[in-house]
Specification:
This protein is of the alpha/beta class. It is built from eleven helices and ten strands. Strand 7, helix 9 and strand 8 form a beta-alpha-beta unit. The protein binds D-glutamic acid (DGL).
Length: about 270
């Protein structure tokens, strides 16, 4: 048993969709969340920059004597996950492999769609893992660079014309192609769940990569006997790299519950 907190980071607030899953799946765990709100989005940046940012995010979290890390950002996991797993001496779980594995198990017609940021799609990580796990499956990936800024600006609800038009434009080739499984390969996209599922229709199974990252971490902690041993009462502390105004309101939307603790701003360039 281990009562130390779990560290979670994302480029912005999207990773809170993974925190929400962690709170549901592991209610007795304490969490330290860092959202790099001054440098979001990562998805339009180079691999070297995303790796540098990810190392700084991890170095910040390491100060808290954490027992494990969740990279609640597909973009950071794609660019840096395998490298930081070798560099740091604690379990680090990302979203990519867990979500790709669920997609490979779920499809019936062997057509899997993946949506994500430009950096995630360019790197082709989802295709590679899905092909390794299910060679007969076909994967079609679409970069959706405008979705993260829309979500970060509170524009994600059904009936929002801009969101519906832009989402429809990105998803049209996947719907026409007939995928039966769609990986939401960015932790911001669960906020767009209703818009995406309405567009894709009831026969397409959506995979929430944040949820799968949380499940993977729960499995890792269980196997390594690192769970806190408590059934509830876990607290989450929040840190961001830009002014925290508006964070509480936004975070409660992502978490679907009130934010109970103060949010603090830190200077990420120091790490
Ligand atoms: N939430 C991040 C992800 O899962 C991406 C956001 C960004 O571009 O920074 O990919």
């Amino acid at each position: 048993m281990d009562k130390r907190p779990i560290g979670v980071f994302d480029s912005g607030l999207g990773g809170l969709t993974a925190v929400r899953q962690l709170m549901e799946q592991l209610p007795g765990e304490d969490i330290i969340f860092f959202g790099d709100t001054s440098r979001v989005p990562y998805g339009t940046r180079s691999q070297e920059t995303i790796l540098k940012y990810s190392r700084q995010d991890i170095n910040f979290l390491m100060q808290f004597d954490i027992k494990a890390i969740v990279i609640a950002c597909n973009t950071a996991d794609t660019a840096a996950g395998a490298i930081v797993q070798r560099e740091y001496d604690l379990p680090i779980c990302g979203a990519l492999r867990p979500a790709a594995s669920v997609a490979a198990r779920t499809t019936k017609n062997n057509r899997i769609g993946v949506i994500g940021t430009s950096a995630t799609i360019r790197a082709g990580g989802y295709e590679a893992i899905i092909r390794e796990l299910r060679p007969e499956a076909q994967v079609k990936s679409v970069a959706c660079p405008l979705l993260v800024p829309l979500v970060e600006n509170h524009r994600y609800q059904r009936g929002d014309r801009a969101v519906e038009i832009i989402t429809g434009e990105y998803l049209e080739p996947l719907r026409d192609w007939g995928c039966d499984t769609l990986v939401l390969g960015c932790t911001h996209y669960p906020l767009l769940w209703d818009v995406i599922s309405a567009y894709m229709g009831p026969d397409v199974t959506l995979i929430n990569s944040g949820r799968e990252a949380a499940r993977a971490l729960a499995g890792t902690l269980r196997e390594a006997d690192l769970l806190s041993g408590r059934d509830g009462g876990g607290v989450c502390r929040y840190y961001v790299s830009d002014a925290p105004e508006g964070f509480v309101e936004m975070a409660s939307l992502f978490l679907q519950r009130p934010v109970e603790h103060q949010v603090e701003q830190i200077d990420i360039e120091r790490y």
